[in-house]
């Protein structure tokens, strides 16, 4: 066992946030058992492969996730553009699921699917930046600049 210099806090926050993305979009699409099985199988395969890769090179894995998150930002941007053009009529007047409204604290009047996509895109942009930053750091010695404890220590020192 060794210190992680505040890394686990950020990684757990990101995992929880990604879980909320998944649950929100599953709520929107209400997939059948086949889709649930496909999602579960894909998660099992990815988890196994990514865990092995992380043991070999955490830096490369964080860089990979940073690029993956950049693609997510692009995808959500395109979805927002298509929604604005009227090409996604099912989503045009749909309200975000209650769990999403609560999680992102969406105010009254800003609870549309478009607002939800903006929230999720902002999350993905943050994940991109965090993972590229973590990919630049030495996991064995560098503190996590996103850790609340590290940020508070910086404030006290200045």
Task: Write a brief structural summary.
Keywords: Electron transport, Iron, Membrane, Metal-binding, Oxidoreductase, Respiratory chain, Transmembrane, Transmembrane helix, Transport. With 158 residues, the protein is mainly α.
Report on the structure:
The protein is an all-alpha fold and 158 residues long. It has one domain (7-153): Ferritin (Up-down Bundle), CATH 1.20.1260.140. Helix content is 75%, strand content 0%. Helix 2 (33-56) packs antiparallel against helix 3 and helix 3 (58-85) runs antiparallel to helix 6 (113-136).
Short key terms for the protein model shown above:
single chain; 158 residues; mainly alpha; Ferritin; 7 helices; 75% helix; 0% strand; globular; oxidoreductase
